[in-house]
């Protein structure tokens, strides 16, 4: 990579030259920093970093990182520790892996419980219970959690909608107003689309709630209330499921606090929905044997 940078220096703008100088001084920087962090370190923008990558022959930042790794000659063990995590070893037994998983997930849940702002959760729950409209934003893996929260709120009688596509989400955010609530879910708190949707909803008058793993993240900074769902990023970055479980804990708490606000409505709605799906649940007492005896299925 260094030879590519040196060869392309005469064609670089001042901003790109700063990136080049940074990488020549610290060739491991792409392995340690995200594209945004590298841009900040060089005093430029992520877009300029992308243009820099293309100028020196890479399609983008991820291929540049691969090139940096190859140049540094990382061993397979180093690759495992960087990409999979130090909580596991390739030679671990299934029992070792299970124990490490339990430790990681337990730590995430305990830390979330200790750090989550109870007052913020209660205030958000009261606003959601009284809201005329709730928008929930989540992209990628966070969209799964957004759908889970929406389904729960909708089932107890709240007008909740989930948006995982930014154009549709921005359209809904633009027509929010006082008396509504917008919820943004992002583990890193740096997902641009989620940030944009939540910020717009808040600007139109909605109460903004953020659920992230980082209280200092951009998403948390635009929210009226922030719930921290903490995970240690011990393995399989960025797909660490302990982070999802921490977010589920925060979502579960928020849902139950909302349900408490109007318990009569909650129980009535849950009973109605249970009755609606009851005919589609098979009885454990009936089945094939009852039919073979000529008896009706219970």
TrEMBL record:
Record GO terms (molecular function): carbohydrate derivative binding; DNA binding; DNA-binding transcription factor activity
Residues annotated as domain HTH rpiR-type: 1-75
PROSITE patterns: HTH_RPIR, SIS
Keyword Transcription: yes
KW GTP-binding (keyword) present: no
Keywords for the protein's UniProt record, in alphabetical order: DNA-binding, Transcription, Transcription regulation
InterPro entries in UniProt: Homeodomain-like_sf, HTH_RpiR, RpiR-like, RpiR-like_SIS, SIS_dom, SIS_dom_sf, WH-like_DNA-bd_sf
GO process annotations (BP): carbohydrate derivative metabolic process
Residue span, SIS domain: 124-264
Residues in coiled coil: none
One protein family per Pfam: HTH_6
Cross-referenced PANTHER family: GLUCOKINASE, HTH-TYPE TRANSCRIPTIONAL REGULATOR HEXR-RELATED
Protein name: MurR/RpiR family transcriptional regulator
Organism: Gryllotalpicola protaetiae
Lineage of producing organism: Bacteria, Bacillati, Actinomycetota, Actinomycetes, Micrococcales
